[in-house]
Amino acid sequence: MNRQQLFEIANSWFQNQGWKPHAFQKETWTAFLHGKHGLLNAPTGSGKTYALWFPIVLNYIKNNPNYPTKHRKGLKAVWITPLRALSQEIKQSAERIVEDLELPMTVGIRTGDTSTTERARQRNLLPDLLITTPESLQLLLASKDYANKFKKCSAIVVDEWHELLGTKRGIQMELALSRLKTVCSHLRIWGISATIGNLEQAREVLLGPTSSEMKNSVLVKANLKKKIKVSSIIPKHMETFPWRGHLGLHLLDDVIPIIKKSKTTLLFTNTRSQCEIWFQKILERYPEFAGEMAMHHGSVNKETRIWVENAIRNESLKAVVCTSSLDLGVDFAPVETVIQIGGPKGVARFLQRAGRSGHQPGKTSVIYFLPTHAIELIEASALQVAVKENAVEDRLPYLNSYDVLLQYLTTLAVSDGFYPHEIYPEINGTFCYQGITEEEWQWLLNFLVMGSQSLKSYDEYKKVEVASDGKFEVNNKGIAMRHRFQIGTIVGDASLSVHYQKGGYIGSIEEYFVSKLNPGDVFVFAGRNLEFIRIRGMKVQVRNSTKRTNKVPAWAGGRLSFSSQMSELLRLELYKASTAQNQSKELIALEHIFDKQREESIVPSPDEFLIETFKSRDGYHHIFYPFEGRAVHEAMSSLLSYRIGLLSPITCSLAFNDYGFEMLSDKSIDIQAVLDNNLFSTDYMLSDLQKSLNSNEMARRKFRDIAVISGMVFTGYPEKGIKMKHLQSSSQLLFDVFRDYEPENLLFQQAFTETFEHQLEEGRLRIALERIATQEIVWRPCQKATPFSFPLITDRLREKLSNEKLADRIKRMTKILMK
């Protein structure tokens, strides 16, 4: 069959559905049938699934003209999805084509949810078209004779590639593809990605930067201008001194009419706890929604989630309160309306959520923005600009993740074994490991066989044996079974229980928070001031303290920080407020706040960096406004307080939000000395940062994940599991051994690299400090708190007071400030 006839099949199928193929779909079909690899850039709901299922099927028809009588069973194509929730959708699209064209092909799913019987069936014979996740693909590579099962596979499609890029699951994919390129003789690799800033790089990571696949590849852009309308819910009355949480639920009555007038509404919250609160409050206030409203987040069980997704498809629910668990392409019929509660912190996340409404090509997406405090209206205004200018963010890929590579090499050793000289060029051809040296490669091979220099006397770290012909293989069944159970790169953040030294239990907090405490630090938890003594296993030991503090546990969900692009957009919007030109209705609504800000201080312009100082009964407040997002402010405030401490010893407590950070101390900091000594310099930044933070402890926590992924620590059999405390204590033991006896250990070094590059965003901190160096620093000594500093000060109070008391205290503070 020639290409013209193949296209006819596709066109008439589309016609029968009452559709017309998009130009980008045809372009993808042509490229695929020409034997090209590629990356398709298309938004959710644009028909991207048919852009790739079709050429896979047409290619089969072309190569098997007598398929009705002679169908060869076995795997023809693999579709990778990062979310199990999406696999049903993708399967239905494939089945629709296969059934309508009366092809003898089978379609199957293999994920963590697949039943044991189905898996057993797949062990004997894989379906023609398989939908699976990165983890399940690795499991297939860990099975004996995998090369035979894959050899006739002609296509691998990696869906939502932008979600995998810049994560360790993305590296798993790079490694799997590097192997399958060798195993399958006629393989085409395609990725599907939403719009990100570094699409070209995304294609390189997918195909390998210098590979023949990269040279024979295309980037297809859908160029469907999705119309998005952002509508802010502007409160009728707004506090001049805004604080986090003073809006939000107060606007509940403004949300209800929006829900009532549309068929289905999704309310996106940023955290699971916020999701639970909104769900309950709406039902309390409007019990008539019972039965017509549901909740969807990651901790809800699978059955309920699937029920909710189906109910949205059937339009039988009026509203769903959800978190990012519904962000990705769960391809239900479009909902009419989306409401975003609180700032989404990133442009990409916002656009993804907006795309949920009018989820079909050509429809306008409407998204309502509901601020949880007044300053978030500046974010709303910035997002309007992002939508207009079609702004996009970069996703930066990882480099040299040795833990993932060790896991992968063990996978190959468990299945059919491997010869290092054959595998090395494949690995060296990936983006992640393009810089790996011969020396590092030898170290990794030794690690597999001996379990690193300092552990070679312990047998449990010796997993892989070398046969007489030089083949690396795992012969011990127990080791192989444990390895298969532990394939994956997602390691949960543990929560630690907090106890008094004598044993009284207080509650549990996240490990992330505890990792930054030094013995003697005081933090507020469950309404008490507690002094941190030590961590024993997974227990935090504390005693009561009378010291003042501002440290407060935050849960992972509350840790979303601005993306670099969002920070930049926000600064530009704010600067518009300083000139009173081209103002959006959101900025106009905030005019009274800006006026009040100008009474004591300024609204900074693009070339100004603002510092405010004032005294209150709590002490001396020093507030800095880089507008760079939480993660950067956390690092910058630590760095600055360490450098100030070198000038003159001072104890201060730190607080930070997305707009700035505060140092509160019992004596005044000499700001002039800070400026004269150029304390915002990038010189010696990394070593100062390491000294200012408990970087050893942070790296130790990172190392737990690395130890689990590389297989040094076993997480336990399913159902049984090993308590996080055992994981932590075994990985801590290893960390200490490497620190004392083998500091050159690659996994030990990786823990520090990840701490600085990923957790503290060291690169962005450097750029922010370089920007401050070019700005005029405006220091304003104020008589009292300003509207900009108010959210920071009140966040500090939130830790000490219950919600009712907090609202009363803030009322009193506001009264004084408004005089």
Explain this structure to me?
The protein has 33 helices and 25 strands. It has 819 residues and is of the alpha/beta class. The chain folds into five domains: 219 residues, P-loop containing nucleotide triphosphate hydrolases (Rossmann fold), CATH 3.40.50; 162 residues, P-loop containing nucleotide triphosphate hydrolases (Rossmann fold, 3-Layer(aba) Sandwich), CATH 3.40.50.300; 88 residues, Arc Repressor Mutant, subunit A (Orthogonal Bundle); 51 residues, Ribosomal Protein L25, Chain P (Beta Barrel); 218 residues, no CATH class. A seven-stranded parallel β-sheet has the order 3-4-2-5-6-1-7, with helices on both faces. α3 crosses α4 and α28 packs across α29. The chain is globular.
List keywords for this structure.
819 residues, alpha/beta, Rossmann fold, Arc Repressor Mutant, subunit A, 5 domains, seven-stranded parallel sheet, six-stranded parallel sheet
User: In order across it, which strands form the biggest sheet?
Assistant: 3-4-2-5-6-1-7
Euclidean distance between termini CA atoms: 83 Å
Main β-sheet: number of strands, strand sense, barrel status? 7 strands, parallel
Flag low-confidence runs: 554-558
Helices, by number, come to: 33
Helix percentage: 40-55%
β-strand number: 25
Proportion of residues in β-strands: 15-25%
Q: What is the CATH superfamily classification of the largest domain? A: P-loop containing nucleotide triphosphate hydrolases
Which architecture name of the largest domain does CATH use? 3-Layer(aba) Sandwich
Query: How many individual domains?
Result: 5
Structural class: alpha/beta
Radius of gyration: 28 Å
Give the CATH class of the largest domain.
Answer: Alpha Beta
Task: Fill in the CATH topology of the largest domain.
Answer: Rossmann fold
Q: So what's the overall shape? A: globular
Mean pLDDT: 86
